[in-house]
Amino acid sequence: MADTRATAAAPATPVVTRRSDYAPPAWQVPQVALDVALDPLATRVRARLEVVRSGAHDEPLRLDGAGQVPLAVRVDGIAVDDWRIVGGQLVLALPGEAHVIETEVEIAPDRNTQLMGLYASGGILCTQCEAEGFRRITWFPDRPDVLSTYRVRMTADKARFPVLLANGDPVAAGDNADGTHWAEWHDPYPKPSYLFALVAGNLAVNRGTFTTRSGRVVDLGIWVRAADLARTGHALHALQLAMAWDERVYGREYDLDVFNIVAVDDFNFGAMENKGLNIFNSRYILADPDTATDWDYDAIAAVVAHEYFHNWSGNRITCRDWFQLSLKEGFTVYRDQGFSADQGSAAVKRIEDVRGLRAAQFPEDAGPLAHPVRPESYIEIGNFYTATIYNKGAELIRMMATILGPERFRAATDLYFDRFDGTAATCEDFVACMEEAGGVDLTRFRLWYSQAGTPRVSATLDHQPGSGRATLHLAQKVPDTPGQTHKQPQVLPLRLRLFGAETGRPLGDERLVILSDTAASITFETVTERPVVSLNRGFSAPVVIDSDRSAADLAFLARHDDDPFARYEAMQQLMLDTLVAATVEGEADHAAVIAAVADTLDDPTLDRAFVAEAVLLPAESFIGDQLSTVDPEAIFQAREALRRDLGRALDARWRAACDPALRRPFAYTPEDKGIRRLRNVALGYVAASGAADAPALAYAQFEAADNMTDRHGALTTLVGGRSAQRDAALDVFYHRYAGNALVLDKWFQTQALSPLEDTPALVAELAQHPDFTLANPNRARALIGAFGANQRAFHADGGDGYRWLADQLLALDALNPQTAAKLLPPLGRWRRFDPVRADRMRAELARIVATPDISKDLFEQASKSLE
Ligand code: 0A1
Ligand code: ZN
Questions:
Q1: How far is it, in rounded angstroms, from Cα 442 to Cα 436?
Q2: Which residue's C-alpha comes closest to atom 1 of ligand 1?
Q3: Where would one find coiled-coil regions in this protein (predicted)?
Q4: Is 329 close to ligand 1, i.e. is its CB under 6 Å away?
Q5: Is the peptide bond before 238 cis (omega within 30 degrees of 0)?
Q6: Taking 70 as the threshold, does the pLDDT of residue 383 lie above it?
Q7: Strand partners of residue 221
Q8: What is the ipTM of this complex?
Q9: Which residue, 284, 327, 607, 693, has fewest beta-carbon neighbours within 10 Å?
């Protein structure tokens, strides 16, 4: 009997989905036709599914939903009512091998604050279906191993929604007599429901073309509000570069006649790779020199490329189940990193990526939310779009590429694309291709997919001067993580090289050592002088290295290493050792760091972007990660003291780097970006020195800048101190960019990141600002996310910040669980702090867990963080 009380209340004990429970779908859906009558408050969705029994069984058809009341259910054209709702699924027994199922529901995109399924953003109707949003649109087996071809017909009011887009190619369109119009799209490529998309809105388009290597002319379109059209050129150009790059580097050609991108202001993540119709958070599309920083420009190109690359690594080959998420995400991040590296300095790109890995993934792997790259279970899959799945996943691909070498790696990706095209595959399928085409045994390498935690490698170099021999002793340990203890050693590809301490010359070639046991010793011959070892060059394995290299050895490598990443790394290690000593002991000798920074600044052979990265001190959070108990105030003071001494000792050099005379009209070239990056780092050091004229200098840059990088760099420096210019700059910035949401996000974020003592109070005040809203994820992240990342402010004595964050998360959870859950991890770091802070953080987590009716998203993050 039909049960119309379909609205499923959240279960008291959330359901855990386990990888080991995977079973192939009982029914396939080769074809889907949707007829969507769009209306912000009452959209009618009629779905026609051609379903086919898969294998011999008598399982009913199970369709996922999200509580919508089915207004009609028909089987082979006949209305039926012998369906049931069980566990949120519509269950329908079917007699034959193939049937046509029709359903009809009504949904209200205007009331969809979760931004999953069909929702409204600034008057545009759009969809977000990954991972499980399609079930919020219609009843469907909403799992990635059900692949269907889609035909979509949309009808909407022509005046409000003149543009109607969906996946694939446009087929037909027309007007109705009642002021509505319709359009039909067809996507010939079978795809899982999470890649479905449609958009309706009043949009303007920046059109371009791309001719593929086989001569297919693809019409490209970047669709935005008319007012934003002038800021779409960079994204369009990046798309064309990405299309050419994927042909050249991976042999991948685009496969439809159109490729559209739509930008919307309200979006839970960065962007989405829906087949032929990518939907983007507008922050990853819109750029002009006045409103976007160089960081924004780079991120736009990277995200446009990432989503485009998913056309093959994600869409043509998708994931069998969500435990395989890294199959598409790790590989696609690896691909977008390669693309970005090829646009400018590969070394700087690698440094940025490793900095990001250490800022986000290492802490995740060391905390309560640690999970393997291929997780074993989840409550809410939305919580697994993590740095581990994406960035550590990319490191796994990188290690396999290193082990195979470029030619065999390309042969292996060719094999993968060829063999699994049109299917839903697994991480195991990918690794098997690497093995087969690479001619290697990756049996033990697979541990990287199943074991969480960042391996730690200890390295000691033993030199026997008389024998001309040196021995490097390596040992590894994979730390315990929640639910995983006593782990096996992993396979670590470590690029190594020795340098002579006297001559500075390399002693032999670089070696690739594959450490796969708990310990190993590597012997180097013809070591004619005292050697210094350059370890894990290019960050060839995503591990922590504990080495016995002295400050002098690190300073030596910072000058002489021929691997730019290793050179940067030596400098970072030197700084880190100094800062850890200063934090623990209250003071430290800054001389070695000052000398190394001076040498780096003076080296004319280094590009400015590299120099800017190399002279930046490690982040407070990363310093904290080295300590058994984090004392945020002591870390801040130690770091500030070193910044001040660097500022004073190298004052003339910093002033030279931010000299207004160096300014030239804005150009987005690697060289100009490097100059701007160093200029802003230098400005920060001048301010850190305490120089009386620093605020004036910063304000002058703020005023004179012809681009956002310099304006925002100056603002950040001003906001880090107290001066009349600080208040003036904030005010000017706010008024100048009133109405530009993306720039206002920067205004909120910069203040929330300020190290000043009154930041917690200011942040609480900003949450009451008329421009603040929890409804827009970018705005929520700009204030709440930035505050949670501000070590000094978030952990300020009293712990009021913890309560404030928990209050914000609970308020946000009622609107948008996915975004709320993403902002929780700072509270989960309680084990790393002193008992007073730890107790307060736990108390807030416990309060969240005990709050009635919280989402399963927030529940999972908070309850796991308490364990
Ligand atoms: N696949 C997208 C990420 C993404 C995941 C979930 C979303 O739901 C709101 C949105 C986007 C990517 O990797 O870019
Ligand atoms: Zn992705």
A1: 10
A2: 272
A3: none
A4: yes
A5: no
A6: yes
A7: 207, 260
A8: 0.98
A9: 693
Enumerate residues 6+ apart whose C-beta is below 8 A from 711. 701, 702, 705, 733
> Residue 6 pLDDT more than 70?
no
In whole angstroms, how far apart are CA 451 and each of 103, 221, 431, 545, 861?
Answer: 43, 42, 16, 18, 20
Residue 144: how many other CB atoms lie within 10 Å: 23
Nearest CA to ligand 1 atom 12: 272
Whether 715 and 739 have beta carbons less than 8 Å apart is answered as no
Q: How far apart are CA 595 and CA 691, in angstroms?
A: 21
Q: Is 563 helix (H, G, I), strand (E, B) or coil?
A: coil
Tell how far the Cα of 240 is from the centroid of ligand 1, in angstroms: 22
Residue whose Cα lies nearest atom 9 of ligand 1: it is 268
Q: 389 CB under 6 A from ligand 1?
A: no
Residue nearest to atom 8 of ligand 1 (CA): 130
**Which residues partner with 152 through β-bridges?**
34, 185
Q: Distance (Å, rounded) from C-alpha 855 to C-alpha 332?
A: 30
- Residue 116 CA: nearest ligand 1 atom is 9
Decide: 35 in ligand 1 pocket, CB within 6 A. no
From 272, 285, 310, the mutation candidate for ligand 1 (largest count of ligand atoms within 8 A of CB) is: 272
CA of 208 to the centre of ligand 2 (A): 24
Sorted by sequence, the CB contacts under 8 Å of residue 816 that are 6+ apart come out as 113, 114, 115, 268, 774, 775, 777, 780
How do residues 285-311 score in pLDDT, each as one tens digit? 999 999 999 999 999 999 999 999 999
pLDDT confidence tier of residue 799, bands split at 50, 70 and 90: confident
The pick from 113, 130, 196 for probing ligand 1's pocket by mutation, whose C-beta has the most ligand atoms within 8 angstroms, reads 130
The catalytic residue among 104, 130, 273, 307 is 307
Q: Are 181 and 155 in contact (CB under 8 A)?
A: yes
Q: Tell me which ligand sits closest to the C-alpha of residue 331.
A: 2
Distances (CA, A) of 298 to 179, 203, 218, 221, 229: 43, 25, 24, 20, 19
Q: At what angle do helices 670-688 and 708-719 cross, to 10 degrees?
A: 20
273: annotated active-site residue: no
What is the rounded distance in angstroms from the CA atom of residue 389 to the CA atom of residue 328? 10
**Is beta strand 318-319 parallel, antiparallel or unpaired with respect to 424-425?**
parallel
Length of the chain equals 867
| Ligand having the closest approach to the CA of 273 | 1
**Contacts with 406 (C-beta within 8 Å, 6 or more apart), sequence order:** none
Q: Cα–Cα distance between 100 and 180 in angstroms, integer?
A: 29
Atom 5, ligand 1: residue with shortest CA distance:
130
Residues 6 or more apart in contact with residue 669 via CB below 8 angstroms: none
Ligand 1 atom having least distance to the Cα of 268: 9
621 to 588, 629, 699, 765, 835: CA distances (angstroms) = 19, 12, 29, 25, 18
Distance from the alpha carbon of residue 412 to the mean position of ligand 2, in angstroms: 21
Whole-number Å distance, alpha carbon 270 to ligand 2 midpoint, is 9
Q: pLDDT over 70 for what percent of the chain?
A: 99
Do the beta carbons of residue 457 and residue 370 sit within 8 Å?
Answer: no
Q: What is the pLDDT of residue 513?
A: 98
